[in-house]
Request: fold
Amino acid sequence: MKRVAVPVIALVVAGFAVSDSHAAPPDKTSGPALEPVGVCSPVYNPTNAYTVPSDRVLVIEDASLGASLDAGELMIGVIATSTDGVEVEHYVGKIDGDVFRFDRDGRSMTVYADPGTNVIIKAARRNSPESMEICFSGRLEPLP
Reply:
């Protein structure tokens, strides 16, 4: 297996940090190179975390949420994407506070977002955590 060096890229999209540090390196064995995408954003319901470029399809492969919670607080994270004109919400995870600390939950997924659409992050919460964030990573694929 040949190793390919992939530069780490950091951008700011709509005021939010975007980095490919959590994404897998692009597959350069065939066709156009896939572009890695990684986004972490604080949650202000709802938050437009990322706009998919008009010439690409976004494939989200991993997502997580994090929050500082006191005992009894609860946070549930959701990522909403649009495919074929339909917005669909995808469950990211849940954090149930037992002592004050920053906790994280997440999962692997395969979620698609159409070109030119927005990826929206949302959180349902009991009480109001001091800090919350939802992160996702994946890749941009060229249109077929």
The chain has no helices and ten strands. The mean pLDDT is 75. The beta strands are 10-13, 16-19, 35-42, 47-51, 56-69, 74-83, 86-96, 101-113, 118-126, 132-142.
